[in-house]
Specification:
The structure holds 2 protein chains of 2 kinds.
Chain A lengths: L3 H19 L5 E6 L2 H6 L1 H14 L6 E6 L11 E4 L6 E3 L7 H10 L9 H6 L1
Parallel strand pairs in A: 1-2
Antiparallel strand pairs in A: 1-3, 3-4
Chain B lengths: L3 H14 L4 E9 L4 E8 L6 H7 L15 H10 L4 E7 L3 E9 L11 H11 L4 E7 L4 E5 H8 L7 H18 L6
Parallel strand pairs in B: 1-5
Antiparallel strand pairs in B: 1-2, 2-4, 3-4, 5-6
Helix pairs in contact in B: 1-3, 1-4, 4-6
The chains are: A alpha+beta, B alpha+beta.
């Protein structure tokens, strides 16, 4: 069973790492739209897929995953915005969990936007 | 919504936006009584009586990005379509409590779904807010109180990866027990 004693060990370990995290102004942000529209369209498994992929690659200090509200393009939900400091924000639309590893690998790690998943590609179709 | 846990995630956002410091989510289910009740209580800014009457109207929202607000109406519908009930109690400056009661065996009952995932995401995305989650079944109950975790963590944020992992496993293990699964 998970115990509070175990949590104490996590605390002590985390203390050593926290300074690193605070000193990372270049952390990228993944914002998943989680208003009624996003949730209904399946945003929760998408958010979980990002968390999983980022954990798997040990990038938790470099990328934060969080939720955002409705940005008014409900027909394109689940919507994910990727913000990398110094670069233009990219909006991915109709994101499915299967698309997440590619976005993490190509865009967040290798800095190549996955153009075919972006709102620009969707609108021009 | 395909799962009630998604309604919970949605409606809990209202508490977040109401500047709540503490959000209490309680799920009480009983096969004996054929019932499931979900309540979401917060200590946020609250609403006037007039606003309470408005939020159940899908065409009311305080947002400016769009003209509809479906969170509360969908939650209400999910309960009423099972022959259950729905209520909102709110007081300006005190907070809001939303309660939905379901008849579990009704053909239009939406499954509760992955409520633990909802709680984990709420904590991950709002690490400065405290959450108290209680889940009760006929077999037993458990509570996750982030205020207790914070006391142990002494300043280490709740959204640290290892803490989130601990929370996810805590929820999973306890859920297994109250659903009568084997204790690992």
């Amino acid at each position: 069973m998970k115990s509070l004693a175990e949590l104490k060990a996590i605390r002590d370990k985390a203390r050593a790492e926290i300074d690193l995290r605070k000193e990372n102004p270049n952390a990228a942000r993944v914002l998943v739209g989680m208003a009624t529209c996003g949730i209904a369209a399946g945003a929760r498994p998408v958010l979980n897929a990002f968390v999983e992929e980022i954990n798997k690659r040990g990038l938790t200090n470099d990328i934060t995953v969080t939720q955002t509200g409705c940005i008014g393009i409900c027909q394109y939900e689940p919507v994910v915005e990727v913000e990398i400091p110094g670069e233009e924000k990219v909006t991915y639309v109709k994101v499915a969990p299967e698309m997440v590893p590619k976005i993490v690998n190509d865009h967040l790690v290798n800095k190549n936007v996955v153009t075919e998943y972006t709102i620009g590609a969707m609108k021009s179709n | 919504m395909r799962e009630l846990s998604l309604n919970v995630m949605d409606v809990a956002q209202n508490s977040v936006r109401a500047d709540a410091h503490l959000v209490t989510v309680t799920v009480t289910e009983s096969d004996k009584n054929d019932s499931l009740t979900i309540s979401i209580a917060d200590d946020g800014c609250g609403m006037t009586e007039e606003q309470v009457n408005q939020v159940i109207d899908p065409f009311f929202t305080t947002r400016t990005t769009r003209k509809v607000g479906l969170g509360v109406p969908l939650f209400k519908l999910s309960a009423e379509q099972t022959g259950g009930s729905f209520s909102i109690e709110s007081e300006v400056g005190k907070g809001t409590c939303t309660t939905a009661s379901y008849v579990k065996s009704h053909v239009d009952m939406t499954p509760l779904g992955d409520i633990n995932s909802t709680i984990s995401i709420l904590i991950r995305c709002n690490p400065d807010i405290d959450f108290v989650f209680t889940h009760q079944t006929d077999i037993g109950s458990f509570t996750l109180d982030t205020r207790e975790l914070r006391e142990v963590l002494e300043g280490v944020p709740l959204d640290s990866p290892d803490v989130l992992e601990w929370i996810a496993q805590f929820l999973e293990e306890n859920t297994q027990i109250i659903y009568g699964g084997a204790e690992s």
